[in-house]
Write a structure and sequence with these properties.
By secondary structure, the chain is an alpha/beta fold. The chain has eleven helices and 16 strands. Bound molecules: adenosine monophosphate and magnesium ion. The site of magnesium ion has 3 residues, from loops.
């Protein structure tokens, strides 16, 4: 058994040798490779079975390192980086030549984040170049927030640094920052734990001219599949909180045909006969805690092999942080019942 420090030392060696390793971050565990190694970056895509059209986030360990990855580091990005980094905010900016088309799926922009987790920071510092790192799970599946989740995904094929559970628990907020004629255009490409209201609030005390863009097109927000984060057992999100258990199970049995056994290439274990065992996901009423425990609950509940997983949405699930949690729940769901 290696100590965590020995695992980190080995990970540095492996990263230097163009291998990929799984590292803890405060959002979720990431599958990391050095950005200057095409061989290593290709390994991320092949191990994850991730399509090349889904770009990777580049993880840095300083603002200076981030600046080298972009052609233009504007003042608003500098301010947001100083306010929210290290932390779960990803900035999308025009890429420099340091960043390959493989990383950005051919886009002219790069997504950058300085993670807060000390182990992620140590790896980036010691390797000396930024690390590209998507979540350490097979494409389309539930993200990992604990080391053993990653081991369940990839068995022994990847070195996993056994850090603590991810404290945030959902992926970073992805923010596109564009500057046109001295006006910044901001767009949230993916919701996360840094909320739009927090960004608006910190910017309100500054003199930047900016506007929010609401419309997100496919090119600007690539890799955003309709489905994602899927557990192996079908997840049903029920938006009618008044349904009794017997009514819910009757309804589910009627809808059995609507449950697919594969979604966007990801296999789902569809119940073969009547649904008898429903496993209810019980998330904390505090959305920050709900985000923290979401993926481990989805994974643990699936391992108990029920016929379906079910989450009941109620009127209490309102507010921006819940929106970030529901972004994941809806994408993970095989069926949404109204
Ligand atoms: P993850 O799967 O957590 O690594 O997150 C990657 C996601 O970040 C992608 O699916 C995109 O939605 C977003 N992303 C990464 N790079 C870019 C980019 N250059 N432009 C816009 N979005 C990006
Ligand atoms: Mg992912």
């Amino acid at each position: 058994m290696l100590t965590v420090q020995q695992q980190i030392n080995l990970a540095v060696e492996q990263l230097q040798n163009n291998e990929v390793v799984a590292m803890p971050t405060e959002t979720v565990y990431g599958l990391a490779a050095r950005i200057d190694s095409e061989v290593a970056i290709k390994k991320i895509f092949s191990i994850k079975q991730r399509p090349f059209f889904d770009p990777l986030i580049v993880h840095v360990s300083s603002v200076d390192q981030a600046k080298k990855c972009v052609t233009e580091w504007n003042e608003l990005s500098d301010f947001l980086a100083k306010t929210f980094w290290p932390g779960p905010l990803t900035l999308v900016l025009p890429k420099s030549d340091l960043i390959s088309d493989l990383i950005t799926s051919g886009l002219p922009s790069v997504a950058l984040r300085w993670p807060q987790h000390p182990i992620a920071q140590e790896l980036i510092n010691r390797v000396g170049v930024p690390l590209a790192a998507p979540s350490a799970n097979k494409f389309g599946r539930t993200s990992p927030t604990k080391a053993h989740h990653v081991k369940e995904e990839f068995s022994d094929s990847v070195l996993v640094i056994e850090g603590d559970s991810s404290s945030v628990g959902i992926e970073s907020t992805v923010l596109s920052v564009k500057k046109q004629n001295n006006i910044y255009e901001l767009a949230i490409l993916r919701k996360g734990s840094i909320l739009k209201s927090q960004i608006t609030e910190v910017l309100s005390r500054q003199s930047f001219k900016y506007q929010w863009q609401e419309v997100i097109d496919k090119i600007e927000s690539p890799g955003h599949m309709k489905h994602h984060y899927m557990p192996s057992i079908p997840l049903v999100v029920c938006r009618d909180a008044k349904l009794k258990l017997s009514e819910l199970s009757g309804l589910l049995n009627k809808k059995l045909n609507e449950l697919p056994d594969e979604i966007e290439g990801v296999k789902i274990i569809k119940p073969k006969s009547d649904i008898k065992k429903i496993e209810f996901l019980k998330l904390s009423s505090d959305p920050t805690q709900a985000a923290r425990e979401l993926y481990s609950q989805l994974r643990a509940a699936s391992l108990r092999s029920p016929d379906v997983l079910c989450f009941i949405q109620t009127s209490a699930h309102t507010g921006e942080m819940w929106e970030s949690v529901f972004d994941r729940l809806y994408k993970a769901a095989s069926l949404i019942l109204d």
